[in-house]
Amino acid sequence: MRQTAFIFDLDGTLWDSREEVTKAWREVELKETGVTHIDNEMTASLMGLPMRDIALAIAPKEYSEQEKLAFGERAFAHENDYLSLHPGKLFPKVEETLRKLKDRGARLFIVSNCQNGYIDNFVHHYGKDLFEGFLCYGDTKREKSFTIRKLMEKYGLESACYVGDTLGDEVEAKKAGCYFIYAEYGFGKCQNPDATIVQFQDLLKY
Predict the structure, then answer these.
(1) Mean pLDDT confidence for 157-183
(2) Same structural domain for residues 141 and 189?
């Protein structure tokens, strides 16, 4: 029987780390400037964007572009450290559903537009025995469609379902040749997904 491969986005699909990420970024800005403009709403709006765009958005306004990118590096490093002690929160039924999918023979992976170490934190806390592999922007320094294809090549996947929650996920998954499943409960909106799940356990239909 042909195995189904699921490749998951992370933020807004498997967990919600907005509160924890916001706290980490705020701590860096407060230490450097004594004030902060970062809040949960801003963090939510940035989830899933390329890291360069995030760095330019969260850095202090008075910083030069180069200083903003350097600030982003410091913020992302602190974010990893913070999440190692204060992980994000799984969406309902995520772990149970992943185990059922794996028991049925599905192969499970993660691809996210994040820095190195971010997915490692998630897997350490919630998925050590669930995921066969993962890849991120920090590994490829390229758009998500490229990263998806690299992961598929690495693990010999002829086809895969990509599960994500934003229009960017939809566009990049289809560019990579994946069937796209929209996680409607997440942070964004999609336009023309191949399928939609209202709650994570709806994946068991597939």
Answers:
(1) 97
(2) yes
